[in-house]
Structure formats: C-alpha cells, structure tokens
Amino acid sequence: MLNVSDLSVSFVTRNGVTEAVKNVSFSLEKGKTLGIVGESGSGKSVTCYSLLGLIPMPPGKITSGCANFFDQNLLQLGDKELTAIRGHRISMIFQDPMASLNPYMRVGDQIMESLRVHHKITFSEAKERAIQALREVGIDAAKHRFNSFPHEFSGGMRQRVMIAMALATEPELLIADEPTTALDVTIQAQILELLDEIQRKRKLSIIFISHDLAVVRDVANHVIVMKSGEVVEAGDPNQIFKSPQHPYTQRLVDAVPGSTKASAISDAEKNVVLSVKHLKTTFRFKSGLPWKREDRLVKAVDDISIDISKGEILGLVGESGSGKSTLGRTIMRLVEAESGEVIFNQTNLLQLTGVALKQARKEFQMIFQDPYASLNPRMTVYDTLAEPMLLHKLVDKNELSHHINLLMDDVGLERTSVKKYPHEFSGGQRQRIAIARALSSQPTLIIADEPVSALDVTIQAQILALLLNLSQERDLTMLFISHDLSVIRYLCDRVAVMQAGSIVESGDTEEVFLNPKHQYTQKLLAAIPGAV
Amino acid sequence: MLGFIFKRVLAAIPVLFLVILITFVLVRLAPGGPFDEERNVPPQVLENLNKRYHLDDPIHVQFFDYLGNLLQGDFGPSYKYPNRSVTEIISSGVPVTMELGFYALIFAVFAGSLAGIFAALKPNSWRDYTPMSIAMIGICVPSFVMGPILVLIFGIWLNWLPVAGWGYAAYDKIIPTITLGATYAAYVARLTRGGMLEVLSQDYIRTARAKGLPEWKVILFHALRGGIAPVVAFLGPAAAGLLSGSFVVETIFQIPGIGRFFLQAAFNRDYTMILGTTVFFAGLIISFNLITDIVTVWLNPKLRKDAFEK
Amino acid sequence: MSDSTIEQGTSLWQDALRRLAKNKLAMSGLFFLLFLIVVSLLTPFIAPYSYETQDLYKGATPPSFEHWFGTDVLGRDQLTRVMYGSRISLMVGFVATSVALIIGVLWGTIAGYLGGRVDTFMMRVVDILYALPFSIFIILLTVVFGRSMLLLFLAIGAVEWLTMARIIRSQVMSIKKQEYVESAISIGLSRTHIIFRYLIPNAIGPIIVYTTLTIPSVILLESFLSFLGLGIQPPQSSWGSLISYGVETMEEYPWLLIFPGLVLSLTLFSLNFLGDGLRDALDPKVSKD
C-alpha cells in the first residue's frame, strides 16, 4: 500500500546544504508494522514528515524519489490533495503528548475537529464518534472526559487521547513517531499493547519510529535501520537483532545493555560505607487562602533505609515521581531531610553544617542527568576541573595541569581540549567532563542520577562502560539512579526498587531480575521491551 | 474562579488605599498653602479660607474626611475654580479622555495584531521586515514628535485633516487617535509576532497540520489563542500608558480631556484637583490591571483550573 | 607539555561579540551612540556658537552653511542648542538608568537568591509599586518638591528599577535551579564563590540587554516631562523642551521641531537596535547550535 523509493531530502542551513535523508526506500503492506530505528539526527523522523509535506519548505527540499500510497504519489500532490489525506487516510502520533495536544482546547473538540474536517457529518454525529473513539482507547467515563483539557490527563492517558484523535477518522496508515519515549516503562507496555490490539482489529498499517531497538523488535514485522540519513540495514527484526550485518547495527545491538556483571563482593567482605536509616523527605506545597491554609504534603522519601558497601554499585530503580532523585539529593544534602540518618564513614551527614559540611563534601560527589545543564557554561573545562582540586587543596599548584591531564585521559577526552568551553562539546563528551569533575575531588562515593538517560544509545553504552571501568579502578562506591532496568542490570551489584517514596524490594541484581518477589517489580520487569 | 476574583479584588484595595494615603500626604507636604500665590491676602481672609476648606484640622482628620467623601464620589472643591467641584471637572473630562483612549486602544490592538500575525507567517522575509520596521518607527518616534509632524504634513502642508480639536470638525479625531495609539500598536505588533512565532513552533501546531486542517484553520483555531496571550497581558499596562500619553495628545491637540485639566492643575498648584485626578487615575489603572489579570487566567485552561481550586 | 597543541576555546562572550559584530543595524546603532557621546562630551569645546548668544536682528532662519540646523526666533544657533540638549538628555538617561540598575540588581538578586518569605515580601512591594500610576506620580513629585534635576534622576530611577528587579530575580531563580549550581554546592564551594563565579556571569547577559533597553525609555520619560514643561527648566534645555518649543512655532519654522525630534528618534533607534542585537547575540538558545 505504501511504496517509498529513492527518497532524498535536504535542508539549507547557514553552513550550506545538509542532506537529511539520502535515497531511502521501503515498502509497507496492509496490516503490517514497519519499524524505523536510528539515533537522534539519523533522519528517521524527517523521512516520515516529508511524506506528508510536514517539513518546513524552505529550508527543506525533497530532492528526489517517489512515495506511492495506493495509486497516488504523495510527493507530487498539491496542498489541497495532501491535506485531504493527512489525518484522514494517514494519521500521526508524536512523542510528547502534552506538547502535541492543544492546551487551550478540550480534548473532545480536538478529536471532533479532525472528524469534521474530513467527513461530512453533523455536530452530534461527530460528538458521538469522538466519544466512541475515546472509549476504544480505554478511557473510562468517555462522555465526561470528552470535556476535559489535556493537562487534566496523566501522560499515558494523554497518549491514548492522541491515539483516539489519530484513529477517529479511520485511517489506513498510522505514523507513530517515538510514541512511548516520554512514558514510564509500565505505561509504555500498555500503550504498545493498545496499538497492537487496534492494529489487529482494524487491519491498520503502522510506521513505528523509535530510537529503541528493543521496542521496535517487539512491535515491527520489518525494520530499517537509519544512520546519517541513510538506510544501513533492513530486514526481519529478530534476524537483525541476532546477527546484525552493518557495523553500526552491531554497535546498536551491543549497546543494549544485556550482559550481566558478576557480583564481585562476597558477604564476608562487606564493609558498609553508606548507611541510610529511616530517611524521610517531605515537600510542602502552599495552597488555600491565607486564613485557611490547605497545604499539601508530598512524602517524596518515606522512611527509607539502605546500606551500600565499599566498592559496591547499588542500583536504585523506579518510575518518574517515585522519589528516587529526591533520595539521591537528600543524601547529597542538596535537599533538606525531615528526619532519619545518613551515616557515611561513621559520620551522620545530616548533622554537619557550615565548614564541616563543605569539607566532608570532598568525599561524595554527584553526576547529574542533563549534561547540557550540569556544567557552568562560562567556565572552561580546565577551570571546572581545577576548582574542586584547589578548593580542597588536593594538589600542588604547579602540578595542577598535570593532574587535569591525567583526569582527561581517564575519562577519554583529548588533553588538547582543556581550554574549551562546555558548549563546544557534544552531549556524550559533556557527560565525560561531568564525570571528570565529580572525580576531581577524589571522592569515595558517587551518586549518579540518571547519568545516561539523556544520551543516544551508542553513547550511552560508552559512558556506562567508562563508569564501570572507573568504579573498579578507583574502588568507588556508587549509588546509581535510573528508570532503565537494563542499564541497572548491566552495571549494578545490587538493586533497590522504589515506588511512591518507599523501597518495595531490594537484593542482588540477578536475584531480583530472575526472581522478583514484589508485584510492582514483576510488573516493571514484564514491561521491559524484549522481555518475553 | 469567583474566589480567585474576590481574592484579587481584595488585594487591590490596600494598594488603592496606599496610593490615596501617599498622594494625600505628599500634597499636604508641599511647601506653601494653596492660597500663598494670591498676593497680599489679609491674614483674616486666609484664615477664613483655611477654615472653609478645613485646612486647620489635624492631618489625619482631614485624611479620613477626604476618604469618607471619596466613598460618596465627592472629590472635594477645586481651589482654583471655587464654583466648580473636582468631581464636576473630572466628570466633564472623563468621557473625552475615555473616547480618545478607547479609539487609540482599538487602533493599537487591531493594527498591531494584524501586522504581528502577518509578520509571523513568513518570518525573515520582506513580509516580516516591512511591518516590523514600521513598528520600530512607532516605538522610536515619541508621540510628542509624531503628533506635531502628522499635523505638519496632513494638517498644514496637505491640508487634508484638521490640526486640532475633538468633535468640532469632520475627521478631527483621526490624527490624535493615531498619535496616541501608534506606540502601543507597535508594541502589540512585536508581542503578537513573538507570541505567534513561539506558538507556531509548538508540537501541537504540527499535530493540527498532521490532522489535515487547512493552514488558515491552523492559524485561526490553534495558533492565535496562545499567540495573542502576551498581548492580553499587555493590555493593562497599555491602558495605563494610554492615560499618561493622553496628557501629551490632549495638550498638542487642545482636547478638553481630563489629562489637560490635570496638567493645568499641576501648573496652578491646585491641590485638591491634583489629588482628585491622581486618585481617579490610580483607581482606573488598578482596575485595568485587575481585569487584565483575570482575563489572562480565564483564557488559559490550566491557570483557570488552578484558580478554581484556590 | 607544550602549550602549542592546546586548542583555545571560544567563550560564550566571544561568541556573542562575533555575532553582534555581524549585526549591521546594531553596529550602526553603536557607532551613532559613540559619536553622540563624544560630541556631547566635547560640546563646550566644539560647539560652533555659544549657548546663549542671541542675534535678534537675524531672528529665525532656515538651515544654512553658517547654521546647519537653522536658528530660533531669538537668533540662537539651533545646532548648538541641540548639542547642549543632548548633554542633558544623555546624562539623565545614563544616570537614572544607573540608579535603576543598582537598586534593581540588588533587590532582584537578594529576593531571588534568598527566596522564601523574604522573596514573597520583596516581590509584593514591587507588585504594589507596579500598580501605581507612575508618570502621574512623577508629575506630582515635581509639583510638590519643585522641578530639580536631582528629583528627576531619583524619580525616573525609582520607576525603572521595578522591571529590572523582576528580570534579575527570575534570572537568579532559574540559574539557582540549574544543575551546575547544585554541582557547585556539592563540591563544597562557598556562597560568595558561587555568586561570583556561577550566578553573576550567567545572569549578566540579560542585565546588559535590559540596561540597554532601559536607557531609551528613561530618555523618553525625561523628554516627555520636559515637553510638558515639568522636567528640565530654562535656561537649560533637553531634547524634550526643545521639541516643545519647536511645536509652538512649527507652522513658520518647522526646522526647530524637526532637528531635535530627529536626533531624539535616532538615539532611540540606535539604543533599541543595539539592545535587540545584544539580545540576539547573547540568547543561549541561538548559541546552542
């Protein structure tokens, strides 16, 4: 039904013409799913947007190719004919459902709008069908929710609304652009299941764009892998997963952390360095009238106790809002705790103040999620790395540049680029600088808060390997916070699962993965794409 | 929402009270009484005058008297025009100033937002640069330069339009309206352009296009509402600016509005008149800001919901 | 280790300056301003005539070789008067903006950095002051305290610091939440070090931009008051009072209106173009790509 051949798209930028898509060909049959995999900037989204004329032209330009949808060449249609197809016979859903729904319009009106544009039906018929569409995607009390605004739904529900909107007009093809990337893993599983169910019922064709090979493997009948605008490999997803041909695909497959790390520490050697006891952190949100306060309390960390032994990597896993970041920040003394103890090297960190706290900070450092926000944009790498060393008087001034060079070597950065500023580096390089900064005060404990979740998957693999390597070399103790179970499994000796401010299960990583006790852990594990 | 409005109105009252208090004290602090300039007033007459206007009472008594009268809509007598009350003078000027301000605001919003939308639809092309350059002129040529120059060109050299007045000759309202509104039209144009560009880059606009809506529907039903939001927020400050702008315009074109009375009072040191007009303007501006706040919240479903909960 | 192999990075400042240098409008604005400032500073030495010399026989004459901007009714050289007017107007612009800058930066930084109740209180004060009809208040002040230059500086500065304080506060608040400030805290750096190495360098861009855009509104406000006869008093004159004088006689002697109006508008253009150019150059969104 869809046959794309030799599609090329280029953009005119300040630095000349870039070819975003180069000679891409693929085809799709009725009721099947095509997966398009690639990292950011690979041209996977541009490919699909250009089919529907959704790239801005200029600066974009389709330089060659044809895209036959049944008997029409989409690339040669005029504006009018194309708008008649868009949202009617080919619909789209996007990554971020909050941003993709109009915040000023009731969701019902948004669904009705696409219906009324493409079908000659009355207002009440349209309303009837819109409610029907909401029901079909599993939204309870659809009649009532019809009048809600997008912000009144949760993330997963919003994506269901998007799907209802896209499918209300009964299209033959659905283009889904990273539809589950912004969602928690359990919600992701639900959305994927919903799409699968609708596809079978309606004989719908789907183009599924994702950076996540494992997700695509689950949903697609056929996969194309894109890199820098080109298709580097195409075929059956399981085949590609098992024996990738192109070196890039191999790297992608290898990058999915799967191999397990043997638990290095036997019980006898256990020497607890960090011990958290009954820690509580509560946020207070003011609301209500001044004389009638109705403050809302959120117990972000609710009576948590954990121990980490020397040289151990403890994984802390949970979905967004579970309080895992707050726990890390509370230990770091970036957020004030309400009660409890954090014993680190025989001292209760929560009781330290002033100079004593500042001196103690040398020993524990943090790596943050967003490498674009965690480095001071006005300081060179050299200054950033020198600051902790000078502050804690760790090295002699004359030897400073020598030590910085060694640190650069350790994290795999060029010595020659120490005088550059953060904005001159790529995301992965910036995260290396952030790691170097955390190591520069020679700490014994590192708290890493989602350090790889903002990175492309091949970069992610490199950073994880670096972290593992450094932690062994320097005998670091690490609290590794992540929402990604496969990353945790790759890196951590032990794992603690967090839900709604409490730890529901903890134990040796393999033990927890193979034999989960708590039902939330079971749900999480079942939701991992690729898990059977 | 009612609770929210109630809360905002409640918060505005102390501000208004503070304004009245500060103004009152300032005026009383002014060196010399209102009758000092009258030459050779016999002490007895001065005393009688002071007694007549209760100027010999302690200041806090005077203040609360004044406040009490204000609540009944009485701004007190004018010292310069003993046979007219400040209330009379204000109410004779208000309709004129309001009419002028209203026309200028309408001109600013319509001309400004149309130009802004026009510019945002094709950014960085001549369709963007032309209206935005005109807007820059509107911002950089102040009304007291633009007004006289418009008069010079259209009134004197071309002889198309009357040079002054308000409602005396045909079309004599055109130049004052444009003079007063031009700066604000320019700001509105810039705000609209910025707001529209911001909104047009949002994901939900892409969704609307992907739905197969024709472009004009995308602009009208999806982009405009968010794009125009900064303009709505600007209306309160704009209304306040229009009021003080009206001083200049009313002076240049000899329009009998309240701004001109205020300036005359300032030159004549007519204290009750100054006090009265300041309080009146303050009340007006505070109400404009209040309305703008409420409308801004009303237009945004998310804020509206928060306001409901409060 | 030889330093020759080390690549020198370009800081965001160098980046921004390079972008600014490419912006023709902003650069011409900058050059016009520099020219105007130099002329104003040197006015007593280079003015073609003395400020008060009258030539009643001559009266008002249109622009000529002897008098580039013409002469006024009393036969005074208009160019000389505009030059002296520029001195006053620019001085008010810079001094009052400095007043606003100092109060605004202190107020905004303290409120933003301390947060909590202090912040709520300080910002409530700003909100209340915002609601006051300020141009009216300034007029009131000039009536009450007489028309003096000092009062003008203070009054205008007192109006303009409000927006400055708001902008600085929101900057400080957003920078304070950045992960790099958290990382600075977790290194154990002192508060002063964080303020001077982390907060200020990152907040200074918007401060510069907004300062550049405050100067024209100050100049405009002063001209507005002087035009109404409530600002600068004779024998001194600023652009506003020259324009007001020009309006009275514009039918017969339009050059008396046009030249001061032109210089004022050109100055406002230059400052606005420069401010917009700086904003574009310093905007981190642009510098990311």
Architecture overview:
The complex is a heterotrimer of chains A (532), B (310) and C (289). Chain A is α/β, with parallel strands linked by helices and 532 residues long. Chain A is built from 20 helices and 22 strands. Chain A has a six-stranded mixed beta sheet, sandwiched between helices. A six-stranded mixed beta sheet of chain A has the order 18-19-20-15-21-22, sandwiched between helices. In chain A, strands 2-1-4-5 form a four-stranded antiparallel beta sheet. In chain A, a hairpin with a 2-residue loop joins β12 and β13. The mean pLDDT of chain A is 87. Chain B has a domain at 94-272 and 288-309: MetI-like (MetI-like fold, Orthogonal Bundle). The mean pLDDT of chain B is 83. With 289 residues, chain C is mainly alpha-helical. Helices cover 74% and strands 0% of the residues of chain C. Mean pLDDT of chain C is 83; it is low at 285-289. Chain C has one domain (28-281): MetI-like (MetI-like fold). Chain C has helices at residues 12-22, 24-46, 78-114, 116-130, 134-145, 149-176, 179-187, 191-227, 239-248, 255-282, 284-287. The interface between B and C is large, with 43 and 41 residues.
> Which band does the percent of strand residues of chain A land in?
25-35%
User: What would you call the shape of chain A?
Assistant: globular
Largest sheet geometry of chain C = none
Helical percentage of chain C: over 70%
Oligomeric nature of the chains: heterotrimer
Structural class of chain C: mainly alpha
Compute the separation of the termini of chain C in Å: 33 Å
Please write the string of helix (H) and strand (E) elements of chain C. HHHHHHHHHHH
Report strand order across the widest sheet of chain A.
Answer: 6-7-8-3-9-10
CATH superfamily grouping of chain C: MetI-like
Mean pLDDT of chain C: 83
The number of E-state strands of chain A comes to 22
Mean pLDDT over all positions of chain A:
87
Helix content of chain A: 25-40%
User: Given the helix and strand composition of chain A, which structural class is it?
Assistant: alpha/beta
Distance between the ends of chain A: 31 Å
At the fold tier of CATH, the topology name of chain C is MetI-like fold
